[in-house]
Structure to design on (149 residues):
């Protein structure tokens, strides 16, 4: 009698672990898609600010307002760091490339904002960096479609 009582909790624990691992996989895909969308959308917004030389109505974008772009990076980077078991997946490897490209773009845009003057050559470079972010976001999205859940 006592033996059967001990096996039941172990069985249910094993069942819970299997169920949780299934949720983890689908949660990875869902969360990855959300993070890719966040970085892509914020990159679009930052590119728009670059095009208008960071003007909002009649004022210049403040350093505090630039924080939203760094927050998006930090949030996505934290997700990437929390998924070491997924590091071998193409989506994860390409996501790391996306993170690096986005971070480079955000810092370069912020330096441009702080530079104090509009420069067509710098703007062209920034828009090229934005295009790279968009390209990598598309690559991660394609990777996710080709990976099993």
């Amino acid at each position: 009698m006592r033996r059967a009582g001990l096996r039941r909790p172990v069985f249910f624990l094993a069942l819970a672990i299997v169920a949780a691992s299934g949720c983890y996989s689908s949660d990875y895909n869902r969360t990855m898609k959300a993070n890719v969308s966040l970085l892509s959308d914020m990159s679009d917004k930052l590119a728009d600010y670059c095009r208008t030389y960071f003007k909002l109505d009649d004022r210049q974008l403040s350093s505090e307002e630039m924080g939203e772009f760094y927050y998006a990076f930090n949030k996505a980077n934290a997700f990437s760091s929390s998924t070491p078991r997924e590091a071998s997946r193409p989506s994860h490897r390409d996501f790391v490339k996306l993170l690096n490209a986005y971070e480079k773009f955000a810092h370069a845009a912020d330096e441009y904002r702080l530079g104090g003057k509009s420069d067509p050559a710098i703007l062209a470079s920034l828009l090229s960096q934005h295009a790279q972010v968009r390209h990598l976001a598309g690559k991660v999205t394609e990777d996710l479609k080709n990976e099993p859940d």
Observations:
- Strands lie at 55-56, 59-60.
- Residues 10-25 have pLDDT under 50 and may be disordered.
- The chain has four helices and two strands.
